[in-house]
């Protein structure tokens, strides 16, 4: 019995490895917004506890330690690869003028949709800040290209990924001692506020020229190992059901908000990626629910410790963050959906193919 999960996981791995990318990227550029699920070094020089620029993070990454909160590549790295980009999208913190036209990654660990989320961990680049940084990058691209028509067309054909919201729960709503939100709002009210703010940010992105935007829903945060350690699981449940419930309410509101953006802006293609559907256990198969690295009290890896040897068999690298193999599954199925629930109305492959209006 114990070998069952491994079998399934290896099938997924093999499936993924047959992707070979030849030729030019399918879109000219890829811009990434989000939190530690996509951060690739933007927090390295910030005053914060939420940084991952030390071993054993990056142990399987071609360039070693980079600030990525996983053993290898992030979901944004994998999607960039599937889109045919030869290089990783550079982090905003260190990006050079020569690199900005093909895309920038603004992601920041502990950041949220709300500005205050993650505050107790230190500095972070909230979604509003990331969008302000994008505005400055657009100005730089416009100056470099020196042809507004060209730049507008360029920005329209890029893919934009947005993967944020977990910290509005983990590092805000779920810490009533430090954040008042949970005393002020019910789960439903809070989800409504978050989704309204998120929609406003996505509208700003649209107004800045974005037309092909993949919006990732939240995973089952109530199943994250650090969250289970913090809250415990009552009865026979293997996850913190109340937290999953809150997340499901958020996701349930986010998807119609994405549909509404498509209605409001008929020349846009926003799409909702259902992380819960993609990571749903297949049949009776459960993956081993232990972190691969040794974790400190905040759920991150203890510096310079030895991680587990079989990283292809773990879902979690530390107390919160998926391993490269879990990121591979997420990226592959958001790129090519295998169920109608995975991505709607478009998977990222379709998003890259639709003609620009
Ligand atoms: C600006 O870019 C557009 C679109 O690529 C092109 O058709 C036009 O000729 C360019 N204008 C100049 C002055 O180069
Ligand atoms: C999370 O909690 C919800 C609501 O209690 C439950 O239906 C769901 O099965 C849980 N998710 C997982 C992956 O266990
Ligand atoms: C995501 O997929 C799950 C199936 O795994 C489904 O129950 C849920 O309703 C979907 N969420 C949304 C917002 O569509």
UniProtKB/TrEMBL annotation:
Question: What are the alphabetically sorted keywords of the record?
Answer: Hydrolase, Lipid degradation, Lipid metabolism, Secreted, Signal
- Which is an annotated Pfam family here? Lipase_GDSL
Q: Where is the signal peptide?
A: 1-23
Q: Where in the cell is it found?
A: Secreted
Query: GO molecular-function annotation terms?
Result: hydrolase activity, acting on ester bonds
Output the Gene Ontology cellular-component terms. extracellular region
InterPro entries to which the protein is assigned, alphabetical: GDSL, GDSL_esterase/lipase, SGNH_hydro_sf, SGNH_plant_lipase-like
Which processes are annotated in GO (biological process)?
A: lipid catabolic process
Give the family this protein belongs to, as stated in its UniProt record.
Answer: Belongs to the 'GDSL' lipolytic enzyme family.
Return the protein name.
GDSL esterase/lipase
Organism annotation: Lactuca saligna
The opening ranks of the lineage are: Eukaryota, Viridiplantae, Streptophyta, Embryophyta, Tracheophyta
